[in-house]
Specification:
With 286 residues, the chain is α/β, with parallel strands linked by helices. It contains 11 helices and 8 strands. Helix 4 runs parallel beside helix 6. About 2% of the residues have low confidence.
Length: 286
């Protein structure tokens, strides 16, 4: 049985205050490109004022060895301007747009309402079709939110189905602040997956170290086969809160898959080398 793991160095790097030099980012991404992740969430075409750490994404993408890798590059965008920059950048195959189930977080994250964000999705999808790119919509706050905004599984499903109607074929259920429970993860995937048989639905879960495997298994047992992770669980969304819960640790997911004899398709020696670079990088720049 296969498991698909998307590595998310963009998510890992974006909250770090000390600027990671461009050459260091290139070294790190080149190491990750050798591992064989199907998708590498590697950069962001958003305002440098919002995410200053990733202001050099265009330069980084020009200089990394994406041509020699089977990994597809994904870049986050928040509006049409960012999408235009992304589709004009060689190597970018996926554009990722964060669409929140929470009105409060949508304003914090993209400075647009949910209603306005529907229009942004349509504009970005049109660009993706025209330039032969793919749009991944992240349904952020999919498992609840800390703002008291309305949330239930039916609301998440409604937004997912609306994305399907807009032509989106890649959706990630994102637990932006780590509020999901095992039962909630299972319930949402069991509800949504039968409604979207032709859509690739991923799990972008944030978790404390001890809850990585239980959350992973909750999604897996509900039928999810696509997971977003980051080495050592680094990262989180700086627009969400000051008290961040990290990403699912890639090495924990890989170890779990290996123990189950599931196939990830990753080069484990290359992965070990990339881990060493990641640890050095994130210990140096904090």
């Amino acid at each position: 049985m296969n498991i698909s793991i998307t590595e998310c160095p963009r998510d890992a790097m974006q909250g770090i205050h000390a600027f990671i030099p461009t050459e260091e980012k290139i070294l790190f991404l080149n190491a990750l490109l050798k591992v064989g992740f199907p998708v590498l969430d590697a950069g962001s075409f958003v305002s440098p004022k919002a995410i200053p750490q990733l202001a050099d994404t265009a330069e980084v993408f020009r200089k990394i060895n994406w041509q020699d890798s089977k990994s597809k590059l994904l870049a986050i965008v928040a509006n049409k301007r960012g999408a235009e920059e992304a589709v004009a950048t060689d190597g970018v195959e996926f554009l990722g747009f964060p669409f929140s189930v929470s009105e409060t977080f949508q304003m914090r994250n993209t400075n647009s309402t949910i209603a306005e964000s529907y229009n942004r999705v349509a504009e970005i999808q049109e660009l993706c079709v025209r330039f032969n790119r793919k749009l991944m919509v992240y349904l952020s706050m999919a498992f609840g939110n800390p703002y008291g905004d309305p949330w239930n599984a039916e609301l998440v499903c409604k937004q997912a189905l609306r994305m399907k109607e807009a032509g989106i074929r890649y959706i990630a259920l994102a637990d932006t602040t780590g509020v999901s429970t095992n039962e909630g993860i299972t319930g949402l995937f069991e509800t949504l997956l039968p409604e979207l048989p032709e859509i690739q639905v991923s799990a972008h879960l944030h978790a404390l170290p001890g809850s990585v495997v239980p959350k992973l298994e909750a999604a897996w047992n509900a039928g999810c086969r696509y997971f977003d992770t980051a080495i050592r669980g680094f990262g989180g969304c700086p627009m969400a809160s000051d008290d961040l819960t990290g990403n699912m640790a890639t090495e924990k997911v890989v170890d779990w898959a290996e123990a189950k004899n599931y196939t990830s398709g990753l080069d484990l020696q290359a992965f070990e080398a990339a881990q060493k670079i990641a640890v050095r990088l994130f210990n140096t720049y904090q």
